[in-house]
């Protein structure tokens, strides 16, 4: 991306959504490769009918396609909002592919991928039976630029010609955004500032859902958005704390091969304690037998119980989402300006103890690459500082001596005070113990939630040595590497996620070249090669990728978990 104030906003929001998706609430915005395998739930063929319950900790707030920040259309949102493209609703790696949704294909680019054209399928209608047109999709995108409807994926501000200056349809005097053309009711054309081979991935986000202009009532639209998907909203209490969805009678299965839409109703309740959610799913009494969660993992103690109960174990789904937890360095702070000091820490790290600190190998997998170990991201195995599973203290001491610290050194590690979290005190203490063996004394500085986030994301306040995490908005190396390592993404006066302040012309240039590719299979290994090149500079030290373990009720069937989201796909679930 070009470095603008809008681009920095993209990065900030991407980080935020990554955290949200880590708990599964929406999409991308904090697994190893292989298919997500959830078992089959209750035995038998799935059938239509029944009521599905969703038990969540976090509320599905801002239920407006302009305001939602989703990947692949999201989970609950994807039941109501169809988009030009969507994620392939399959298990594991097959689920990382982008496929057509409202459109007949994933998009037709011009020669340099600066113009993308889509054609709508025949027979598309809203919940009231009226036809969906490309003018509605254009309007849906335009309203996402309005300040009062902010919160959604803001890539379009950076990618669309004129997007950076556009302020939405409520202020444009009816002019609209000229870079989106709708020559007829079934054709829509996007004009971009620069080549973007991954535009089909962006077109999965809910900003691409159609919104009929006549039904738009601004900030109140979220109370009853007009459905283009298999379900419509019949109740939205306390800004998404309680959502009730019923069948959209005008949804056509013939135009939607991705969503199964088995249940008659879906009841989403949030604000529940995570331990209570797991207890209810485990017991599966009454309506809870037909219940799932999209945001609550099993913890170590709960996994131990599952391990001794075969019937319970058969109801646990395992998922992988592209996320990496890592050590970040600020090279503007001594002694981290010295590459040998950073390399020494990379050798000293004990990844086994770090993994154990977040619950063990069932909940995390050690990482030596920044890219998650999935093919879609371009994962290329490498370890620039091979230290084995428990670290190499001798090699670390050797590098410290070369750096001028033969007698060791003392550093401060900043972490979150959120206990049990991937950036929390348990991981920090594990690193403290490992580095001590190499002669590095680590003092721990714990910060509370907002204070921690504000500190580590500020170029002015960023500490020298801290814990961080990153997840991609879609399964590709681009949204994973560019925000963290593209020098043009450095933000001096706002949220900055290029924590190592890396501004390498060759890295920046390669990002641009890969972004031109519309053959994503060809692009993937180039992202992997770039990851290796960056990794050798030791501006970060990857620690682990999370693994998600989640229970479903005993009557839940047809559990599908893709490597795009890492969580159960509600659009596939049956309860009969």
Q: How far is the first residue's CA from the last residue's CA?
A: 47 Å
User: Which outline best applies?
Assistant: globular
What share of residues is helical?
A: 10-25%
Compute the number of strand runs: 19
Query: Radius of gyration, rounded?
Result: 23 Å
Strand order of the largest sheet: 8-9-10-1-11
Mean pLDDT: 91
**What composes the largest sheet?**
5 strands, mixed
The DSSP helix count reads 15
Structural class: alpha+beta
Strand percentage: 15-25%
Uncertain regions spanning at least 5 consecutive residues? 1-42
Organism: Streptomyces mauvecolor
Protein name: ABC transporter substrate-binding protein
Domain Solute-binding protein family: 97-488
InterPro entries: Peptide/Ni-bd, SBP_5, SBP_5_dom
Describe the protein.
Residues 97-488 form the Solute-binding protein family domain. This is ABC transporter substrate-binding protein. InterPro entries: Peptide/Ni-bd (IPR030678), SBP_5 (IPR039424), SBP_5_dom (IPR000914). Pfam families: SBP_bac_5. With 576 residues, the protein is of the alpha+beta class. It has 15 helices and 19 strands. The strands form six sheets. Strands 8-9-10-1-11 form a five-stranded mixed sheet, with no helix packed on it. Helix 8 runs antiparallel to helix 10 (393-402), helix 9 (351-357) packs antiparallel against helix 11 and helix 14 (505-515) packs antiparallel against helix 15. The longest helix is centred in the N-terminal third of the chain and has 18 residues, at 5-22. Residues 1-42 have low confidence and may be disordered.
